[in-house]
Amino acid sequence: MSYVELHSHSAYSFLDGASHPQELAGVAAEQGHAALALTDHDGLHGAMEMAQALKPLGVRPITGSELTMEDGSHLTLLCETRQGYSNLCRLITRAHAGTRPERGPATKPVSTYVALEEHAPGLICLSGCAREGAVARAVERGDHPGAAAAARRLVRIFGPEGMRIELQRPFARHDRRRNRALVGLAERLGVPCVATGNVHAHTRTRARLQ
User: Which domains, and CATH codes, for the chain?
Assistant: First the structure.
């Protein structure tokens, strides 16, 4: 069965990712991936490096980012079209606006759901990682109505054709139970599921650098 990784982080996700884009690209090619999405936190810092590394390897680059939302959750966005790339750039710019004041400490970038509504065209939304995605996080704490509400909000913004429920297995407690609940939610909402690895390194030996 073919597999495409749609959620990965490079060393440009500071204090989180532990491999350079070129290293991730090399392993993706070795494993026979047809495409690879780089989704660094709140930015496109490694997107060009990844595209340049993947091109000679015959692997299609997918541009994306994992945004930090105003409620503290994480949301994975992938560019489907040129308009989507333009909209993702605008979202990231808005998230970073005002984070470097002339006086006082810097703050972290934050995206709003209002901004998502304004810049949704051309983007594919994945519901977020197992630990910090709004939908999965609600399921994890047993708040199934909250998970459904969070998922419905994303469906309203991106439409059923632009929304995917993200399934991950970080080998933590309740992985299978959480994923079963997410699959059931996706079926009720009429949206597909996608499996992602939330990759942070090209080899296990880099894990200690995270």
Answer: 21-100+107-209 (3.20.20.140)
